[in-house]
Amino acid sequence: PIPELAESWEPSADASKWTFKLRKGVEFHNGKTLDAEDVVFSINYHRGEESKSSGKSLVTAVKDVKSDGKHTVVFLLEGGNADFPFIMSDYHLAIFPAGTTDFEKGIGTGAFKLVSWEPGVKALTKRNPNYWKEGRGHFDEVETIYINDVSARINALKTGQIDAMNRCERKTFHLLEKISGIKGINLTGTTHYTIPMLSDVPPYDNNDVRLALKLTVDREQLVKHILRGYGAVGNDHPIAPSQRFYASELPQRKYDPDKARYHMKKAGKLDHTFKLHVSDAAFSGAVDTAVLIKESATKAGIKIDVVREPQDGYWSNVWMKKGWTFS
User: Residue 199, Cβ neighbours under 10 Å: how many?
Assistant: First the structure.
C-alpha cells in the first residue's frame, strides 16, 4: 500500500497487533484536523453490529481499535494477518470526522468536496483548497454523471454531454478512437472480475461444486471474446500478472469439462440447475460472460440458468445476497 492518511505502520511479531502513525496537518472538508479518534470512530462505524457499510466484512477480524495519542492508532486482531495494511487501503473503509451522524454529506479528506448528490443520478464536487497533497486537484469543479447503460454512455461522449468516460465497452473502443476529438487510453490496471459464490449457502458450501464450476469457465475464451484481448487470464486470486507479488508458480486453473463433470458427480449435483445472477452493472460484458459460461458448462453436462438482474439495485439487492453472482 502507498502511504496516505497513514504515513507508516508496524506489526507485532505475530502480526496480530498493528500500529499506524497518522499524517499530521490533514484537514477534513469541514475544517477539522484529522486525528486518531477520527480513525477509531470510523473503523468502529464500519465494523459495528448494525453497520451497513460495504467495508464491514473487511474488518470482522478487528478485535479492538484504539488511539495512542493524537497521531497513533493501534489495531488488535483476532489472529495474525500480514495483509492487514492492504486491507486497510480498501476504498470502502472511508475515514470520517468522529461523531459523524449524517454520512450523506460526504465529509472526507480528499481533493474534492461534495457539493450535491443525487443517488444513482449525479454528484457535483468542487476543489478542496486545503488538500494535503500540494498541486493536486486540477479542476475547479467535477460533475460525475452515473450512466449505467453502455450505449447511453457512448452517445453522451460523442455528443459532448460528458468530457470523459470509463468502463468503455471493448468492442467499441477501437471505433471511438477513430472519432475526431476523442482519445482512448488503454492502461494496464489491477481490476479483476470475479464470479463469487456464497460458500456458506447450499449448494455452494460443497467444495466439489465450487471446483466443478471453476473448471467450467473457459478463461481464455472470455479474454478473447469478452475483453477483446484487453486483459489477462485470471487464476482465482486478485493479483494481476503485471503486479509485483503475482504468484507465477501457481499452476494455472484451466477449462476442463471432464474434470468438472467428475467433481459435480462426486457432489451429487449433476441434475441440479445452478442460477447465475448477473447484470452489466457488475462490469461491461458481464451478461455476455454469463452466457459463455453457460455454454461451456454444457460440455460438462452441468446446467446453468442465467438470471438477468436489473442494473438499478444490483449491488444492494443481488450481489453477495444471491448464491452466485458477478463482481
Answer: 12
